[in-house]
Amino acid sequence: MEEKKMNKKILMTLSLSTLSIIPSCFSLISCTKENKQDEKKSLNQIIEGNENANEREWKNFLNRDYVKEILRLSFDADVDAKNKYIAEQKKLNNNIEYSKKLKEALIYGNSLKASSSYNSDDFSSKPKLLFQNGKKIFNELKSKNWLWFLYNLPKIIFGYFPPMNKFESSDEQSALTAQGNSLILGHFYKPKSNEIIQYTTQVTKNDKNGERTYDVYLLTKEGFILQLTIDWAKDDEDNKIKPSVKLFGYIYTYPNIVKDRNNLNIFNIQKYVIANTESFDDINNRTLQILFQDQYGGSPLRYTIIDVSLK
């Protein structure tokens, strides 16, 4: 009898112990579910926060005066076409695959590569298809995705690409000048921001039939000059006046601006345009250009688009 009572007591104790474990298990499962829900909620909040931050950045960007000016000149009063284009560019900005495609295209299609390829004796043996496709995507960036470019300027990598100067006395002197200039800033340059501190628009054509051309010059916070051309011309197919935009694949700065950014305080983008856009055949303008260059340390330094950062 005593043994049976003892067994019952042990059994009851085990049963009670087992029951006491069950709620703990349910509690653990419930807690795990709640943690997962909290993690999912936090992740959604982060994603939503990033989307809101990105939208705010785009809103601020589109409210900048120079952006509004370029869009106005590009679309005139066609608000629907303008809004559609902006939506496409914002969508493109969220597509990492486009950046990857552009990065790969620039390996073969950048201006430095094109220059070396055309000057090479064995160009026929090079992968022409990759080169041609790279140039196509690069040209689309300049003619179609220029708004994406202006927004993502801090992701663009430029390479030093000195122009051939017909006023230099020899190829050797040109090479020495180019080598010296490259040491001022370096062979590569990546902007720190997309901020523009000055801009100006030059009307180079304005016909009575509606055909017109605008050149827009932008001066960045770091002292580089960008240029876009907006051309309203008659379409050959339907004979209507239609716009086209071309972003120049080069950016320019001057030695004295690179050496001392305080020179930006006196730099005037309109004076730059006046000194650099007239014909070299005009002796007065050539003199004006020389004086302008002397003030800022010599001939402008030219850089071209060669890569895009995926970060």
SSE map:
Elements: H1 2-62, H2 65-75, H3 79-93, H4 96-109, H5 111-118, H6 128-143, H7 146-151, E1 156-160, H8 171-185, E2 188-189, E3 196-206, E4 212-220, E5 225-234, E6 241-247, E7 250-253, H9 255-259, H10 269-276, H11 283-295, E8 301-308
Antiparallel strand pairs: 1-2, 1-8, 3-4, 4-5, 5-6, 7-8
Helix pairs in contact: 4-6, 10-11
3D structure, described in words:
With 311 residues, the chain is an alpha+beta fold. The protein has a domain at 196-308. It has eleven helices and eight strands. The protein has helices at residues 2-62, 65-75, 79-93, 96-109, 111-118, 128-143, 146-151, 171-185, 255-259, 269-276, 283-295; strands at residues 156-160, 188-189, 196-206, 212-220, 225-234, 241-247, 250-253, 301-308. A four-stranded antiparallel β-sheet has the order 2-1-8-7. Strands 3-4-5-6 form a four-stranded antiparallel β-sheet, sandwiched between helices. Strand 3 and strand 4 form a beta hairpin. The N and C termini lie far apart (80 Å). The relative contact order is 0.11.
